Amino acid sequence: MALSTDELACVYSALILQDDEIAVTPEKISTILKAANVDVESYWPGLFARALEGVDVRKLITNVGSGVGAAPAAGSAPAAAAGGDSKESKKEEKKEESEEEEDDDMGFGLFD
């Protein structure tokens, strides 16, 4: 999904406000957009301000890569760097794969 120019302009405005530790409001987003000579649909600034209400944008940005999907990759790196036994890690990977496969097989297929 590609973001429109209006969306990107509002994202950048919100980031500027957050960086300057200024509350993200529709009026302030509109002010930044006006100063940058960017015209957006009138509903975008309010939409972004409501979406970011009560959200710590700085914390959100710094935690982007620390989601659940990144945990296994981060967990395996220290073992490899410490000279961990590769056979053990392969056994663990196979065990995890077999458990996942068992969970996925429910006795029917998508096209049955």
From TrEMBL:
<dbReference type="GO" id="GO:0022625">
    <property type="term" value="C:cytosolic large ribosomal subunit"/>
</dbReference>
<feature type="compositionally biased region" description="Basic and acidic residues">
    <location>
        <begin position="85"/>
        <end position="97"/>
    </location>
</feature>
<keyword id="KW-0687">Ribonucleoprotein</keyword>
<keyword id="KW-0689">Ribosomal protein</keyword>
<comment type="similarity">
    <text>Belongs to the eukaryotic ribosomal protein P1/P2 family.</text>
</comment>
<dbReference type="GO" id="GO:0003735">
    <property type="term" value="F:structural constituent of ribosome"/>
</dbReference>
<dbReference type="InterPro" id="IPR027534">
    <property type="entry name" value="Ribosomal_P1/P2"/>
</dbReference>
<comment type="function">
    <text>Plays an important role in the elongation step of protein synthesis.</text>
</comment>
<dbReference type="InterPro" id="IPR038716">
    <property type="entry name" value="P1/P2_N_sf"/>
</dbReference>
<dbReference type="GO" id="GO:0002181">
    <property type="term" value="P:cytoplasmic translation"/>
</dbReference>
<dbReference type="GO" id="GO:0043021">
    <property type="term" value="F:ribonucleoprotein complex binding"/>
</dbReference>
<feature type="region of interest" description="Disordered">
    <location>
        <begin position="68"/>
        <end position="112"/>
    </location>
</feature>
<dbReference type="GO" id="GO:0006414">
    <property type="term" value="P:translational elongation"/>
</dbReference>
<dbReference type="Pfam" id="PF00428">
    <property type="entry name" value="Ribosomal_60s"/>
</dbReference>
<dbReference type="GO" id="GO:0030295">
    <property type="term" value="F:protein kinase activator activity"/>
</dbReference>
<dbReference type="InterPro" id="IPR001859">
    <property type="entry name" value="Ribosomal_P1/P2_euk"/>
</dbReference>
<feature type="compositionally biased region" description="Low complexity">
    <location>
        <begin position="69"/>
        <end position="84"/>
    </location>
</feature>
<protein>
    <recommendedName>
        <fullName>Large ribosomal subunit protein P1</fullName>
    </recommendedName>
</protein>
